[in-house]
Write a structure and sequence with these properties.
With 131 residues, this protein is of the alpha+beta class. It is built from 3 helices and 5 strands, in the order αβαββββα. Residues 1-22 have low confidence and may be disordered.
């Protein structure tokens, strides 16, 4: 009886307070880029676009009580060039997108680059070469 009560408490705690972590695919920081971790590190236009996403440092700004379904696992930056690794968690599967942006001088507009049909780390290196 004591065993089943302890199990029930442990199960209730694990359901009540799940841990969600954004896991990177492990891509290296592209040559000449800096790796960043917080929403505040992004220019204003990207802060607005990714508000509510979990960041690499584990913070979620303005998140609701539900677990985040999207997160940024990696942020790389060089000048006005930004590459982000976005993790999207679905009900059954998760996937990773590599996003790249060219941000204006004032940080108020960002031009997204078209998606690459390659594997994650290859896309990071290709975007780094393009930008």
């Amino acid at each position: 009886m004591k065993w089943s009560a302890a199990f029930a408490v442990a199960l209730a705690l694990s359901v009540a307070a799940p841990a969600y972590a954004v896991q990177s695919s492990g891509c290296d920081t592209p040559s000449g880029y800096v790796s960043l971790n917080t929403l505040a590190d992004l220019p204003p236009v990207l802060q607005e676009r990714f508000q509510g996403f979990e960041m690499p440092d584990g913070t979620v700004k303005d998140a609701s009580s539900t677990p985040p379904s999207e997160g940024i696992a990696s942020i790389w930056h060089r000048g006005r060039r930004w590459i982000l690794e976005e993790i999207v968690n679905g009900d059954i599967v998760s996937h990773t997108d590599i996003l790249a942006f060219y941000v204006s001088h004032d940080g108020k507009t960002a031009e997204p680059l078209p998606p690459m049909g390659t594997r994650y780390c290859v896309a990071v290196r290709e975007y780094a070469r393009m930008l």
